[in-house]
Amino acid sequence: MTMRVGIGFDIHRLVKGRPLILGAVKIPSPKGALAHSDGDALLHALCDALLGAMGERDMGTYFPDKDPEYQNAPSSLFIRETMKKVRAKKLCVLNADAVIVIEKPKLQPFIDAIRREISKLLSTKNVSVKAKTHEKLGDIGRGNAVSCMAVVCLGKNASRKA
Ligand code: MG
Q1: What's the pLDDT score for residue 143?
Q2: CB-CB contact of 87 with 157 (8 Å)
Q3: DSSP character for 30?
Q4: From ligand 1's centre to the CA of 76, what distance in Å?
Q5: What is the pTM of this model?
Q6: Fewest 10 Å CB contacts: which of 57, 108, 110, 117?
């Protein structure tokens, strides 16, 4: 059985007056991600993990942050476009696992909603999302940034002929 694993990472500064969106879920917070798009670091990490699993280049290659089309764009767009590549290669997501590192707010109340959104985007029930603080260390620990790590595993889509 063909299996391909990919890893992704992202980090965004957190500033006042921007929305905090993680896994396509809006999280109430006085600070949000500074970014050209909506700054969804979790979906960006997952997008890079999908691309990595396919042996493709990083998401900036396909979705440049200078492109006006992507200004304040919902990051679900990047995942949807990347999933088209996954399906074109007759692959599917077997599972996805991710870690969000943010000092505050606490994300536990939102984890189930985030998992549901990612499940829909990646067409798999096998999604895990964990939230960690950075133990008050460094810029993330001071609440000035959010970072995310993600791993995805792709397999041959059994419902399609190779
Ligand atoms: Mg990003």
Answers
A1: 97
A2: yes
A3: S
A4: 12
A5: 0.95
A6: 108
Q: How far is the CA of 65 from the centre of ligand 1 (A)?
A: 9
Q: Which residues of 14-26 are buried (b: 16+ CB within 10 A; e: fewer)?
A: beeebebbbbbbe
Report the alpha-carbon distance of residue 153 to residue 149 in Å, rounded.
14
Say if residues 49 and 79 touch (Cβ distance below 8 Å). no
Please state the φ and ψ torsions of residue 6, each to the nearest 5 degrees.
-135, 150
- CB hemisphere CA count around 95 (13 angstroms): 6
Whether the bond into 105 is cis, omega within 30 of 0: yes
| Sign, Cα dihedral of 61, 63, 68, 71 | negative
Distance from the first to the final alpha carbon of the chain: 12
Residue in the structure block whose two tokens are 């960690």? 132
CA of 44 from ligand 1 middle (Å) equals 5
What percentage of the chain's residues is helix, strand, coil (to nearest 5)? 30, 30, 35
